[in-house]
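Table S2 (text version). Query chain:
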Amino acid sequence: MSNTDFKHWFLGYDSSIADEFRNPDRVLFTESPNEVEVLVDGASYMQKLYDVIDSDNATSGDVIYFAGLELKWDLYLIPDNGFSQILEVLDRAHKNGADVRVLLSFHYHNRFELTTNVDTFRRLWSRGIECIYDISAGVKKWFTGAAHQKFAIICRAGKLHGFCGGIDITYDRWDTDQHDSKKQNNGINRPFAQSFPAGWHDVHTYIQGAACHDLLTSFEERWNFIVDTPEIRSRFNVKSRKPSTLGSPQISPIPLNGGHHVQVLRTYPCFRPEEGEIELPFAKHGEMSAREACLKAIRQAEYLIYIEDQYFYSYEIASALIDALNSKPRLRVLVVVPREPNADPLYEWANYHQGQVIDMIHTSVGYERFGIYDLNIDPVTDLVENQIYVHAKLMIIDDVWVEIGSMNCNRRSTTHDFEMCVAVVDDATSTYTSTEMGTVCDFAHDLRLRLWEEHLGVPPSQISHDHVIGFDFWRTHSDISPHHARNHIASLNNERKWIFWKPNLWNSQIDIEGSCPDEDRIPPL
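Corresponding structure-token output:
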């Protein structure tokens, strides 16, 4: 029977918070009360964001703090609503008196695609909205780090609302769970239709409750660090536009009796002052709580580990899955990934190492209890333009513990880039006497069934509560229309295979390791 006690899963109960969070400077530690809603695919997230901002009714004292990898200023949160362009939404709230601030990442993509965030940065400042180009994640390893966190805090009438997950406010992220964006979206937000016309799958969360304070503190820490650090602020930020220090908004008591326990989990790398790097005052030795929570939950698993991930080429996580499968004879692992983690030939390293990870698992545990799939509108027709790109970063374990956020299953996400996730365990449970799991948490169980219904393209009545029957259903119904699931085979261009044997390039540029030298480091290849 599944263990539904949140203390069994969360960090900080087996040992000290500092030890498990791997950050002695960490002061965040709230679990309840909270109410969490999962927003599956971009359309639901952007609709909810628009509704909560409610810019026409914003007033002085309200705050809107947004942190993301990217923000396309001309994206329409609701394609058929001409008032929903994100720049205009933020501008209306600002003009009505709300304190609006935006943190955007400066990372290697932006130097090749300067319009990605530079244009947004300039347009926000032209409206009087404070925006910071955060390069603090990229001062290590030749500017290859990224501020990859995707979260927002909105305070309306003293009440906090939080968002955290994997969805950026950019064109191709808008999609519905039907993944028929050409009809649904009329092409407004999808200029990249030739790359992924069939769809984009992603997951985000909307949070009310105590965990919002952790999100707010994380934003304040990053913002004020940049404002107070001229060496960081002067790089790639317009010097005449100095952002102001952020003070905490006035927040009313939280009148919630929500049953969701939530931990906010993060990744920050270890910066080395002795090498001229500027350390983060709120994570002087880095923080890998998102990684530690993931590895702990895998160790606790007994029945089912369900993963959705954009990359899935972490050798460390693969080793943890192998250990769990070998020691737990009833355990099954099911993974959903995109057809290609990177279609760009420059980054085919990812495809190669994903293949290595999959082969490592199959060699160690066989095929019976491990399955990996990708998604196509029509799995029988082998066309790239039919793929549903899986960008989600999600784990559900034993239908109890859920992690959703920005951390991918790769080394740079678990140790180096700025990441943020939330782990959720629900108080509400249900018992299914005919299944091995027995008692499960409603939040995790219902989410898994909802995702499997979407990916398999079947009505709810065809998805069994029994995870064993569901696991076998994927196997017997993949590669068959009308189901979206395909058995996944890692893509590799053999003509360029020589480049994958250059581990120095991989370790220093693509899948970087960011732990402190005296800590438990993930070995380079």
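Notes on Table S2: Confidence is low (pLDDT under 50) at residues 110-115. Residues 33-258 form a domain with the Endonuclease; Chain A fold (CATH 3.30.870.10).
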